[in-house]
């Protein structure tokens, strides 16, 4: 496409030259205003529905300078301005059970519950789908939109991304807006042709595990902009980036000045007692007391795998999680618990929580209880209760029932609490009985 007319809300038309390397999608709102954006497929985008939730924030900055000269070949300004654009990022997951039984006709919609970036955020959003398309043109597609339900300002601008989670909880069929679109209360933006229905319903594609459609939405809302101005000092100093983690990692790899040896299944790790003692109370106690390890400057470790030990040491020296955390999170959690590395332990909990499945949920609960990983334990119980019908068919369930009845009791107690609270809310407040006279 060489030239495209872009129409604003006022109806004015401007010409712009746009070169699109991939198929383009037309994104439009319910008033028919359209623009052109490059997308992952040639699906049309339009507005008419939406939902999301859950929170974060970031900023985008731009610098404006005035006056000045240069020194050492670098531009220099006496006066400067820094504009900070605050962006609130959050996400929302919507699961629709028994999706293949949806009987909505073309143009009819399903809406999610409302959501926001947090409990204090007054912007309310929702997701909206047309299971059989918005109109005749999109009847063979599922249409998907993000709707601004409530807004305390005249307008907000937001970018968004939609995807479908497959059976492995991986994002697939992702489509996103290429710029921040203008939302007002009751207005929506989205994709009229988000995904073909026949492709979605085909079991071979794995997009409807157990007939559940799970839509994942990420939203970035422009919150506000702040200008910070000032005057530069006469001299400028370029402070180098901190290399502490890199330097300590190099110290570990080079083994320079090492004064202690960890022997793990035949593999030697030359380390530095001062660093290990500063980072781990367990190692500190080992080096402080008159133990054989202190005298020999050597310890044999049999209950930790060599690969796990290597990654744990790298964390001790750098404070960074290993790149392959997901694949070793269970063993690394046990090592972190043994050596009192609380932050690494929580990192492992987070990775294991993200990888929860029907097959591993019970084993993860057992692991969390064994190593006092309370946050992971709560999430595992919640996952088991949410997917109870499938979990009880797993091999891990038999292990839980036969060997860990106390954990099974905790799971049932949590399930009873989840079911009782909504019932009490439906019943309303208890009324006091009047005294009989």
UniProtKB/TrEMBL annotation:
Keywords from the UniProt entry: Nucleus, Ubl conjugation pathway
Coiled-coil ranges (or none): none
Domain annotation BTB: ranges: 258-325
SMART domains for this protein: BTB, MATH
Every MATH domain range: 89-219
Metabolic or biological pathway, per its Swiss-Prot or TrEMBL entry: Protein modification; protein ubiquitination
GO cellular component: a single term: nucleus
Family: Belongs to the Tdpoz family.
PANTHER family: SPECKLE-TYPE POZ PROTEIN
Name of the protein this chain belongs to: Protein roadkill
Organism: Trichinella nativa
Gene (name only): rdx
